[in-house]
Amino acid sequence: MIATLRLLLLVGVWILIGAGVPLLPALAQPAGSAPATAGKLRVGTFPDNKPWEFHDQAGTLVGFEVDMIKAAADRMGRSVEFVPMAFRDLFPALEDGQIDVAMCSISLTPEREKRFDTTQTYYDTSQGMVVLTSSHIRTLADLIGRTVSAEAGSTNEKWLVTHSARYGFSQIVPARGLDQAVQWLHEGKIDAYFGDMPALMYRLLDAPELAVVQRQSTYERYTLTLPRGSPLTEPLDAALSQIKQDGTLSAIHKRWFGAMPAPGSAVNTVRERAGRGN
Predict the structure, then answer these.
(1) Bridge partners, 101 (sequence order)
(2) pLDDT, tens digit (0-9, with 9 covering 90-100), for 69-120
């Protein structure tokens, strides 16, 4: 049943979007950063981000990106230590040396590329708008005078701020996770929530009262983010290349979405990382 639902999810995303080994021992952190624990990769993430990272019924952290980073770290000869925090705190944590890597379906942007190191991208997608099916909201034009929401610090929130005047939003309320946003929708605190399509569609599997009614013409490319000048950037990027080439990442995709990724997708194609021709 779950496999069938995941396959339906994958098909739904394609329709709506229009379709997205040991290497080195522990190395020192950049100047100003706290030293990393030998043999461990400290990965900061917000664990309320299905299907990328979330806690299952047993309380175990699971998800597409969780499996991905474990596989990549294994190729590097490292274990993974997950450091939970709000999405908006991930980037200050990188700069303060609290974590080695930020991972939470992080979209590559020019601002982030200038501020941090990034790996090659590993997933392509788009943004969408979710509402209650009982509402009369079907397009962006229906949001005049309405309250909207997105994950605090995300590219979704940035899109809302940029287009607020154009669409006449009355208020933009930052959320901490999709579950909180769904609760707000039911309580009437917000009228629409904006997020990336895979997370929205995955959440809709057990929420028939919700619907994705609009897709924004954006292009989101997910990447792992590291402190500027981190000695871990190249080894981690190389490890991503390995799990793409040997089929590990494609198998992870099938595990979480019920089907293999399309040929030539970011899941199974090695790409130049940002700053090196990507």
Answers:
(1) 43
(2) 999 999 999 999 999 999 999 999 999 999 999 999 999 999 999 999 999 9
Tell me how far apart the alpha carbons of residues 102 and 225 are, in angstroms, rounded to a whole number. Answer: 5
Domain 2-122+223-257 classification at class level: alpha beta
Cα(217)–Cα(219) distance, integer angstroms = 7
Kindly report, residue by residue over 161-204, the tens digit of the pLDDT: 999 999 999 999 999 988 999 999 999 999 999 999 888 888 88
| CATH topology match: 2-122+223-257 vs 127-220 | yes
Domain boundaries, the chain: 2-122+223-257, 127-220
Integer angstrom CA distances of residue 62 from 82, 177, 264:
11, 16, 26
For residue 25, what are the contacts with CB-CB under 8 A and spacing of at least 6?
38, 77
Fold of 127-220: D-Maltodextrin-Binding Protein; domain 2 (3.40.190)
For residue 174, give Cα distances in angstroms to 32, 66, 155, 156.
31, 25, 12, 10
**DSSP three-state, residue 172:** strand
For the segment 204-234, what is each residue's pLDDT rounded down to a tens digit? 888 899 999 988 877 889 999 999 999 999 9
